[in-house]
Amino acid sequence: MLKFNEQQQIDSVKGALMIRPQIEKAVDEIQKEGFDGLYFIGIGGTWASGMQVEVYLRGRSSLPVYVENAAEFITTGNKRFTNKSVVIFSSVTGSTTEMVDAIKKAKEVGARVLGFIDVEDTPLAKLCDTCISYPMNEQLKFYMVANRLMYNNGEFPDYDIYNQEMEKYLPMALVEVEKKADEWAAVYAKEKYQYYKEHPDMPHYFIGAGNQWGATYSYAMCYWEEQLWIRTKSITSAEFFHGMLEIIEAETPVTVFIGEDEQRPLSERVAAFLPKVCKNYTVIDTKDYELKGIRSEYRGSVSHLVMHAVNNRVDAYMEKEFRHPMVIRRYYRQFNY
Amino acid sequence: MLKFNEQQQIDSVKGALMIRPQIEKAVDEIQKEGFDGLYFIGIGGTWASGMQVEVYLRGRSSLPVYVENAAEFITTGNKRFTNKSVVIFSSVTGSTTEMVDAIKKAKEVGARVLGFIDVEDTPLAKLCDTCISYPMNEQLKFYMVANRLMYNNGEFPDYDIYNQEMEKYLPMALVEVEKKADEWAAVYAKEKYQYYKEHPDMPHYFIGAGNQWGATYSYAMCYWEEQLWIRTKSITSAEFFHGMLEIIEAETPVTVFIGEDEQRPLSERVAAFLPKVCKNYTVIDTKDYELKGIRSEYRGSVSHLVMHAVNNRVDAYMEKEFRHPMVIRRYYRQFNY
């Protein structure tokens, strides 16, 4: 399998799950002290991860949890944000300008800040009240925070069983997803390149809902646009029916991400509609992956990780088919703008 | 001027401003009774209008005001939504399935509902605690609600002066925007058609921020995609720099909507970046329009209406240049899906 290190993947997820005591300590302190609002602040991919955890909590928890875009927070601000508010964020480099400014602003107001920063030694880390350093697995870390918040709020009675199950089965289950998706992903990438050769201007349409929406949005923008320089458009499954459907024709390239949370029916509706007007669409359904050991009622809470695993395989083959090293950038951080 | 009835436009906005006593009565009742959350619920264009009013209030008011997508509300739901919550929505037809289901669900929970429905006699109207019927001007109605909410909450001391000024000057100011934009819009539409002939697959990129974001999103999706069948992608000015910038090249067609609220610097940054990598971009800046009689500090609160007026002119000429009657639909409400 191309660019795949099974043990490394297992260790990465396992290690993330092992930082649970640190997360629990930080979350318990936050809830013991109380807060008037808890804000996941991000930009680009980290904002998308914030959207994923917000929609997860929205339907399950009465806690006041919100998602804020860092650039909007430093311009428009938020009048409900006070010194009793809490910020949670994640950053790989700890150097994204908008994030640094947003966290500075939050500290000026007097809010408490919990940061997940991959690199320990950054200026951003110094601004955090609590900083947890562990590489990658941002989406998983946010969900671990969410689960603890709900547990402390009496909204997650089987928290212990859930975690035991995840710690025992999730790392291997996600690796198995990658293995199962591998052959399909190679074909998919080949087809995308063939199509692209003939239609370089045509955007690829990505559609998703619920805790797949963050994945849909950031996969289209942060992977295909930023890292592969391929045009995309992403739209939520619900909004698709209120405008975008009109530009779908027989050959329009579309990929639908279907997860297993409460918004699944919205994406199933798209998948049922598409064959009537289009024959160039792909459905990636997390339900097609076994996730051995994880009971059905927990599957929705990891759908976004399953999709991420599938897309790891797609990335590997897209990079190869398009002969486009995913690390290069045309403009991003290449000059001042 | 093509498809332009000056007096009708003036009367339309004037009439909307005249429903203020009805709006004030409804809002005063809501605030007298108190609420734990006020939710603008919408889908498609009405969701976009909700986003515009939410971002307006976010920076100005400590009131708990949120925007909800109707389809997400009926699937994921919102655990913080209670019988002490308030829903505000707008609907032209009163028959959009997701809206009917969302309002039914809100009523089941026991929430109070204020509806703006263009047509008085719809099933949706019967579900409202208060229903205000006046055609069009949805964005203006929402901002009138917002202004009254802030006034009652001690956050809008010059409410009376503001309204006097708007009632005296806004209808004519917006008509003057259309007149000033007309000649430019005719050229813009012609250029878009010329480009489209050569590049039918290429999406047109729309970028905007703050209270222009709802306008940007819905203009791209509800007008160009739905009504003109032209590919588009819309992105916020802040997010543009976190992925989408990479697919902009010299000839990529881009339009930036710049308004005059707190997020203006985010869009100015896009406008400053684009010339370095692209020569096929257009900036529509509300600052270029006089708005006679409206003082500078109020301009940001009507930027979205100014942009709407400019785009009325664009629509008229796009419809003509593309020979595409904007009323026709390929799929929407044409068959069951």
TrEMBL record, chains A, B:
<dbReference type="InterPro" id="IPR024713">
    <property type="entry name" value="Fructosamine_deglycase_FrlB"/>
</dbReference>
<dbReference type="GO" id="GO:0006002">
    <property type="term" value="P:fructose 6-phosphate metabolic process"/>
</dbReference>
<dbReference type="InterPro" id="IPR001347">
    <property type="entry name" value="SIS_dom"/>
</dbReference>
<dbReference type="InterPro" id="IPR035488">
    <property type="entry name" value="FrlB_SIS"/>
</dbReference>
<feature type="domain" description="SIS">
    <location>
        <begin position="26"/>
        <end position="155"/>
    </location>
</feature>
<dbReference type="InterPro" id="IPR046348">
    <property type="entry name" value="SIS_dom_sf"/>
</dbReference>
<dbReference type="GO" id="GO:0097367">
    <property type="term" value="F:carbohydrate derivative binding"/>
</dbReference>
<dbReference type="GO" id="GO:0006047">
    <property type="term" value="P:UDP-N-acetylglucosamine metabolic process"/>
</dbReference>
<dbReference type="Pfam" id="PF01380">
    <property type="entry name" value="SIS"/>
</dbReference>
<protein>
    <submittedName>
        <fullName>Glucosamine--fructose-6-phosphate aminotransferase</fullName>
    </submittedName>
</protein>
<dbReference type="GO" id="GO:0006487">
    <property type="term" value="P:protein N-linked glycosylation"/>
</dbReference>
<dbReference type="GO" id="GO:0004360">
    <property type="term" value="F:glutamine-fructose-6-phosphate transaminase (isomerizing) activity"/>
</dbReference>
<keyword id="KW-0808">Transferase</keyword>
<keyword id="KW-0032">Aminotransferase</keyword>
